[in-house]
Records
---
Amino acid sequence: MKRSVGGRIGKGVLVALLLVFTLFPVYWMLSSAFDKRASSGGQSLVPQEFTFDNFAYVLTKGGFDVFLRNSLIVAVAVVVISAVLALLASVAVARFNFKFRTAMLFMILTVQMVPLEALVIPLFVQVRDLGLLNQLLGLIVVYVALSLPFGIWMLRGFVAAVPVELEEAAYLDGASWWRMFRSVLLPLVMPGLVATSVFSFITAWNEFIFAMTLLGGASDNYTVAIGLKQFFGEHTNEWGYVMAASTIITIPVMVFFVLVQRRLSSGLVAGAVKG
């Protein structure tokens, strides 16, 4: 009995320590964002002077309203385009036999192993040659290219797990390919589609290196990841503004996760066993 009680206490203490370790950075970010003295380096665990001035400055003089708009445009476009292309490509590789099919799947898997830093210069040259440098469209194209390998590989398992007999039954009932795709295949692979969309959204929302490289000459097209950099100076950092901007950046991600969290959990578990 004593061992049981001691074990429970030990587990409780361990859980509490893990929660503190995990949640303290979030608390420090929020505390500094609402602390008036944070910008001068005087922030503390509990804000001494509670204020919304940091948020007001970031959204007005800091230009974060424009950066948020740009990031939302890029993220939504990347999620939609990569989801459509990855789904269609996964149907092709899972349902049809064609020449070099295995080689293409191997190449998709290999691309995911290449460090992103190694792709910066080649993609910069390609975007420049296409005349899309310093444009959101160029960044969208790059992010879609980065998201597709993971999306195709993951969705392929979901499509392959759907019995072909279901599709054949729909055809026998007189359904067209589009009707079968919309009413039979799409609902069954939706959890995987949501999981890949989360990956695409995070890639487009948080990525910094490609955004800075491709948009460095157009401040009006900056995303939130680049916009956050302006509050870091050579000798001092505006921590109140940094934390307020970080809080603003976090909100859309939290909203997105709340909207898709049900299907996300089922999609990740299913994706781990389907292939």
---
Amino acid sequence: MRARFGVPLGITAVGAACVAYAAGYEVRSFRLRRVEVPVLPRGMRPLRVLQVSDIHLVSGQNKKRRWLQSLAALRPDFVVNTGDNLSDPEAVPELLDALGPLMEFPGTYVFGSNDYYAPRLRNPGRYLVERFTGRHGANGNEPARNVPRNPWEDVRDGFDAAGWVGLSNTRGRLKLDDGTEIALTGLDDPHIKRDRYDEVAGGPEEDADLALAVVHAPYLRVLNAFTADRYPLILAGHTHGGQLCIPFYGALVTNCDLDTDRVKGLSTHHAGGHESYLHVSAGCGTNRFTPVRFACPPEATLLTLVPREA
């Protein structure tokens, strides 16, 4: 009898321990990723860029809120927020409080689907099914219909009041304290087909010291367009780094058509005979209905931009 039931009970115990770890510890084990990217003109001073993404804030997540506030001690030159700030329509005041110290620095932002729409209960296994059936393909999903909306306008107004530059299918500029000018080009969320690249096409503005491309979801059609237009660096989020990963193997899904090898961190992308650096943030939150992470801690990234080699 022991032999018959021992193995299933052991597997059950290991599974329960993994769930307890993923939901009780790792999902709150916030990390800072540090990355160096050689994209600046020769002779330009290094720039420190803090990227925050996929916060998915729920009211009462005080540890996450305090951790976000603490990132201001890094003293970045500017901040890039790549979307999905909310997972609770009541959390806007806490979100603006969490990001308040960072909004003392120059910054820019794009929105993701979870800024616009309230979260829904969804079986995580569907992400695997959608990957293997090609549901995430090159086009993303249709905009949600007949679902509750998040008060995204309040988030936008808070960011705008702090001087952060919104980049929903538009261009913008950041001017740093030392006079450095950053030309920015951004898209609304491709995951729900709100991106309109034709409205921003044409490549970087040449009179700026640096040009950046910003988008929430790193769909290939967007990466191809930015890269073909010769943007040196693209910043994105959305993937959660896979969220539930296999140790020593990595992510199983990206929730878009990006390959799993580039689900988080720094990589390169090639299109139109050109190459861009791509940084995908694993983000620091989860949908409120799937509050677990495994082998993929929540994170923000401090990117140090340095001059290109000769």
